[in-house]
Amino acid sequence: MSEVIASNTDIEASLAKAMLRVAELEALLEEEFESLKQQNLSNFDTLNEKKNKLLKELMALTGIHKPEDAQKLDARWNEFKDKMRLCRNLHRRSEILVSRKLDAIKGAIDSIRSVSGSSSVETYDKLGRVRRGRQITGYMTT
After folding, report:
1. Cα-based torsion angle of the residue sequence 87, 92, 98, 103 in order, rounded to the nearest 10 degrees
2. Measuring CA to CA, which residue among 94, 102, 103 is closest to residue 35?
3. 122-141: per-residue pLDDT in tens?
């Protein structure tokens, strides 16, 4: 019987630690999104390392290594699972932002690389004003 009590105490302690860590993860994911919006990549890299460390800690505390493992947790872990779902959605939000920024960058690169049939190409000068110039020629056209 003492094993059951010890086991319940261990579970409660793990749950309490996991709830603290998942709250940290949620705050970190919010900060990560803000870093992405501001294009602060050095802070993003630092946060990404912290996020991976937190996720490893959560895996160790819960024993969850793949999504199916979460089904093995009893009802005491429901609040934790809800918080983790929220964190998954916050992560997806950041993922969508990164995808959109990458698409915009790819589009910009494609427009710079494309050679149109017109005789002029619009570019921007150092002050951000539109400058019409000749079509780019050189090594790309050989």
Report:
1. -170
2. 94
3. 677 777 777 665 545 544 44
By C-alpha distance, which of 109, 108, 61 is closest to 84? 61
pLDDT at residue number 133: 56
Strands (E), the chain: 120-124, 130-134
In the chain, % of residues over pLDDT 70: 80
Domain boundaries, the chain: 2-116
Amino acid letter, residue 52: N
The DSSP symbol for 135 reads P
Q: What is the residue type of 30?
A: E
CA distance 121 to 118: 8
∠ CA 22-28-32, nearest 5°, is 145
Picking from 25, 44, 31, 26, the residue whose alpha carbon sits closest to that of residue 101 is 44
**CA–CA gap between residue 28 and residue 87 (Å, rounded):** 10
Q: Write the single-letter amino acid at 33.
A: F
